[in-house]
Every structure is written in structure tokens, then in C-alpha cells.
């Protein structure tokens, strides 16, 4: 029989992509993303023993990841400037592959301009979560989720059009 630590690590290995995506949406700087990833893992570990509904673990991971990221932003007063540190060997292949795609990089840049809550909503929307799931994860009403998605789409479209004009 697995102990709690083994069970947690096994669960985490299947959901690491969520942690990387959330960190990528909230933090531009590689070191900030890595710090945030570690903080999310810590917060997940702290609350894992109290998790009751193991079948909704993905939603729980999104909620903890998003709340941890927003808390870090508030605590640090937003994204802070850091001098470039030497490259670390453990940079995630996942994030690097995402950033290699030019269209995806432009989308992420546009998403960075959204409010923290709208970033969360759009990440979940792009992950093809239902409005109900997004509502449960964010604590917003389903109708508010719909309104925010529509507004965020318009904002993203404007930001992407602006980026396309700048690149010409």
C-alpha cells in the first residue's frame, strides 16, 4: 500500500502540465515561473491530506495553482524585475516547447495583459473546461464566467491585432 507521499508524487506527475501552464500565464520570467511552480507544489502538498473528492483532482489542482499564483502576484506587488540569472539546467522542456511556437507566444503575451482573474478564466477556457467547471474553480457565477470570457476574447483579439500590426 502506498504512503501519502508516494500517492501525492504519483498524482503530481500526472498533472505537472497544469502547474507549468498556470505559471506561464502569470509569470513572464523563467525564474519567477520556477519559484511559482515550487510554491504551487508546496501548497498542493499542504492541502492534499484534506482533499476529499479525489475524482475532481484536476479542478482542485487548477484552483490551488491559480490561487497560489494570484497570491504571489499580490504579495510581490505584481511581476518584479530581476536581473538575468545564469541559465539553470532544470528548465522545463514543457515551457520551452510552448514558447517555441510563435502564435502561442503571441497569445501568451496577449493573455499577460489581462487581469489575474481573466487570465485564470481564459486558461481554463483554452483547456476546454465548461463554464460550470470554470465557475467551480474560480468561485464566480456561471453567467459571470460567460461575460468575462466574452470580454477577454475581445481584449485578446485587440491585443493580437495590435501585435500583428507591430510585427509588420
Short description:
By secondary structure, this protein is mainly α. The protein is built from eight helices and no strands.
Walkthrough of the structure:
- By secondary structure, the protein is mostly helical.
- The protein folds into 2 domains: 1-77, RNA polymerase sigma factor, region 2, helix turn helix motif (Rna Polymerase Sigma Factor, Chain: A); 101-168, Winged helix-like DNA-binding domain superfamily/Winged helix DNA-binding domain (Arc Repressor Mutant, subunit A, Orthogonal Bundle).
- The protein contains 8 helices and no strands.
- The chain has helices at 4-26, 30-47, 57-75, 93-100, 102-112, 116-126, 131-138, 142-166.
- α1 packs antiparallel against α2 (30-47) and α6 packs across α8.
- The radius of gyration is 17 Å and the shape is globular.
- The chain starts with a helix and ends with a helix.
- The model is unreliable at 79-91 (pLDDT under 50).
Topology:
Layout: H1 4-26, H2 30-47, H3 57-75, H4 93-100, H5 102-112, H6 116-126, H7 131-138, H8 142-166
Helix pairs in contact: 1-2, 1-3, 1-6, 2-3, 3-7, 5-8, 6-8, 7-8
Amino acid at each position: 500500500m502506498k504512503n501519502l507521499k508516494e500517492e501525492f508524487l504519483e498524482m503530481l506527475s500526472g498533472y505537472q502540465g497544469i502547474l507549468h501552464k498556470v505559471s506561464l500565464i502569470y509569470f513572464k520570467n523563467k525564474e519567477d515561473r520556477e519559484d511559482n511552480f515550487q510554491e504551487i507544489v508546496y501548497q498542493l502538498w499542504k492541502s492534499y491530506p484534506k482533499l476529499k473528492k479525489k475524482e475532481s483532482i484536476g479542478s482542485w489542482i487548477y484552483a490551488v495553482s491559480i490561487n497560489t499564483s494570484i497570491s504571489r502576484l499580490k504579495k510581490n506587488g505584481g511581476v518584479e524585475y530581476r536581473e538575468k540569472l545564469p541559465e539553470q539546467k532544470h528548465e522545463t522542456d514543457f515551457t520551452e516547447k510552448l514558447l517555441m511556437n510563435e502564435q502561442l507566444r503571441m497569445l501568451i503575451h496577449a493573455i499577460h495583459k489581462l487581469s489575474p482573474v481573466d487570465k485564470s478564466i481564459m486558461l481554463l477556457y483554452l483547456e476546454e473546461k465548461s463554464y460550470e467547471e470554470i465557475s467551480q474553480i474560480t468561485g464566480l457565477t456561471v453567467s459571470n464566467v460567460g461575460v468575462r470570457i466574452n470580454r477577454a476574447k475581445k481584449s485578446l483579439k485587440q491585443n493580437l491585432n495590435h501585435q500583428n500590426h507591430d510585427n509588420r
